[in-house]
Write a structure and sequence with these properties.
alpha/beta; single chain; 39% helix; four-stranded parallel sheet
Length: 131
Amino acid sequence: MKKLLSLLIHTKNDDYHHDLLYRMQRALDLNLYFINKLGKTRSKLFEIIYVDWGSEKKLSKSLYVHKDFKNSVKFIHVNKKTAKRYSKKFSNFFNPNISFNVGILKSKGKFILATGCDQFFNKQNLENLIN
């Protein structure tokens, strides 16, 4: 099914700030909550894509997604070897440009919004994006 908007998040499960995983989980929960508040028809216009760039432990194993939202959230894991190969110019093996391109290729959205891993959008923000 073609979506209207893909929220594209590129990140790595390395908890480089002591509470990053908590903030990511909180943002995911809030985004899903507010997407759900749009109603059944409009909530189907959105998808959330995480590009997990070279994590040791897959982000999909660290973030909880309620079963009702499994079809709205997609995790794309780029293994460590591939991430390293495509990130030679970056000291921490995180290449934001290529990770966004991976997410764009896997997106089903007519529009794509690249956003931070701990950013959330309230209902009004989402309605403005739809309009």
